[in-house]
Amino acid sequence: xxxxxxxDESPGAKMTDEEYGNHRAAHALWAGTSVLxxxxxxxxxxxxxxYLDTCLLPGGALDRGEPPARGAARELHEELGVTVVVERxxxxxxxxxxGMSAAAVMRFPGExxxxxxxxxxxxxxxxxxxxxxxxxxxxxxxxxxxxPDLLAPRDARRALAALRARIDAAGTVLLADxxxxxxxxxxxxxxxxxxxxRHPYAFDPSPVPDxxxxxxxxxxxxxxxxxxxxxxxxxxxxxxxLPGGTPEPTDGxxxxxxxxxEAAEEAAARLTGITYLGHLPDPGAGRTRVRYAARLTAxxxxxxxxxxxxxxxxxxxxxxxxxxxxxxxxxxxxxLAAVHQARARLGLPRAAPQSVTELAGTTTW
Length: 365
Fold this sequence. Notes:
Layout: E1 2-3, E2 15-16, H1 17-25, E3 30-38, E4 44-49, E5 59-61, H2 68-80, E6 89-95, E7 111-120, H3 123-127, E8 136-142, H4 147-150, H5 153-168, E9 173-176, E10 179-180, H6 185-189, E11 215-223, E12 229-233, E13 240-241, E14 244-245, H7 255-267, E15 269-282, E16 287-299, E17 313-317, H8 319-323, H9 331-345, E18 357-358, E19 363-364
Parallel strand pairs: 3-7, 6-9, 11-16
Antiparallel strand pairs: 1-2, 3-5, 4-8, 6-7, 9-10, 11-14, 12-13, 12-17, 15-16, 16-19, 17-18
Domain Nudix hydrolase: 21-164
Keywords: Hydrolase, Magnesium
Cofactor: Mg(2+)
């Protein structure tokens, strides 16, 4: 019985079933899974194992004929003792034969690894983890920027690409040796390659109680008409920030003036309708940080920020996406709730889940 030609064969070529099967078997690859799990702070779960010097994400090789999602759920049960339904794919990585330092005797042919979203685990689920008697010696949640220090380079690239895909909400991304075939703006900026800014301060929606309290910082959630907010990415570090900064003497001790000035200097942004959100007191230092919301009306040509000497990458992200770029602890949820209340007062819609968008040129709304 003849089999029609495939795209990699010469036009009009015919093959028998046996020849076709041999042809395809010669291109066989291993198949495996990884599962990306985070805690409430956005830290990634990694496993310490007794057979490698480096750590791993949960997962492993698929059994013969096993669908990838089912294999991922099985591995979670075997390695962590938990039952989880795995449904959402984050990345598919083609690992080249040279992309893994396998012993020659293993005859490593290359591998396809499916990376799944294991979700965000709360304290109850984390406490339910039960490790097997061998192989997995410990688990821990680590800052994403630590992954290159703890995982093999190929595994760290894959994990960070999958985490950026989860934040970007763009669907499953295709990788080759951990590198995206079509990098997003988060990939190009190298988001998460350095530790995220951490502000573990309680959010207080009331006014600053003492008008003489020094203001350490003033940031603004600047809303575009579609309900997304302006986020600035540092191309040197991959770090993210909201428009704003440290008050200067020329601001006249008015944080609203600070916000307007910093938004113009950092992002060439014009704001209107600036409204107070709350503050984050730092009792140990006797100072606080104030937060505002505003409408974003225009962006000029991006210029070098006076503080850093280079232009930021300007992007629009949903408030939920923006929050994942920071390590604010439980107070982040309180601030996010205040952000959406301010958005509603400004008469703006709640942004639908969508990809992060770069704003490279001038824009007026």
